[in-house]
Design brief:
By secondary structure, this protein is of the alpha/beta class. It is built from 10 helices and 7 strands.
Length: 287
């Protein structure tokens, strides 16, 4: 990789869930971990735990550039890896979302992710090595009703990775996608907050559905079949960062493997028939 006795990685969205598990795992593997987060209280906690906390808000270009500059400065330009994990899921039927909600979803999940990647790439190309790992989702392969704009953002991340992976041929920089399925995190619960914050549930034709889902998931996290802890994703991230030949895609959980297969081989009519059965409930993924 970089030739450093302690390779450095910048991981975004490390306040909890997959990002935190990845930061802790790579730290335990002997890596120097720059942990990105947006809220000051999370940054303080990460610093107290021994991580090199970096403030980054992917919705703001100035914040992205400042974070990239800080990390590259602190590691003398020897950044071995970037893990683009930060993001959120905007729920709601597409007809219920306004332009600002859709724009913010792409600002954070797509544009901020790519801007940060581009900011660290020159250093990686110059050193002749580096790993870019994008945390995508099973919904980046199969779009779900009521998570259409989030699915669209993950489809975009998949397209960006596929294009840039080829563009970086011969540079020594490799790009991988990690595609989690159901993971034990607060992702769905956080997404539900967006329903209360911005979805016109009183006027939507899906008003009853929104209310039922909020009531059903308002308490403790429900059990999901085939779900795994975030540490399972962290192990895939480690492989993408360290393997001599990292994979282009890492599916995590059985539903993620099935989603990958269905996206490539199942007829559209069959996919539609399966997804129509979800219309009686919100389709909030865990990642």
């Amino acid at each position: 990789m970089s030739g450093s006795p302690q390779p450095a990685v910048f991981i975004t969205g490390t306040s909890s869930g997959i990002g935190y598990a990845a930061a802790l795992h790579m730290k335990n593997c002997g890596w120097r971990v720059f942990s990105g987060a947006r809220k000051s209280e999370d940054l303080e906690r990460l610093a107290e735990e021994g991580f090199e906390a970096v403030s980054v808000d992917l919705a703001r270009s100035d914040s992205v550039q400042e974070a990239a500059d800080k990390v590259l400065r602190e590691c003398d330009g020897n950044l071995a890896g970037l893990v683009n994990n930060a993001g959120y899921g905007q729920p709601g039927a597409l007809e219920d979302l306004d332009r600002e909600q859709m724009r913010r979803q792409f600002e954070v999940n797509v544009l901020g992710l790519q801007e940060l990647t581009n900011a660290v790439l020159p250093s990686m190309i110059q050193q002749g090595s580096g790993r870019i790992v994008h945390i995508s989702s099973v919904v980046g392969r199969v779009s779900l009703p009521f998570m259409g704009i989030y699915s669209a953002s993950k489809f975009a991340v998949e397209a960006l990775a596929d294009a840039q992976r080829v563009e970086l041929t011969g540079t020594g920089v490799r790009v991988s996608l990690v595609e989690p399925g159901p993971i034990h995190t607060q992702f769905s619960k956080n997404a539900l907050g967006s329903v209360n914050d911005g979805i016109p549930s009183d006027t939507s034709r899906f008003a009853d559905l929104y209310r039922r889902e909020l009531a059903r998931r308002g308490g403790q996290r429900e059990y999901r079949p085939f779900s795994l802890p975030p540490e399972a994703v962290a192990k895939k991230i480690e492989h993408a960062l360290t393997a001599r030949r990292p994979r282009r895609r890492y599916a995590v959980t059985l539903p993620a493997h099935l989603g990958s297969w269905m996206s490539r081989l199942a007829p559209d009519a069959l996919l539609d028939a399966i997804l129509v059965r979800t219309l009686d409930r919100m389709a909030l993924p865990d990642k």
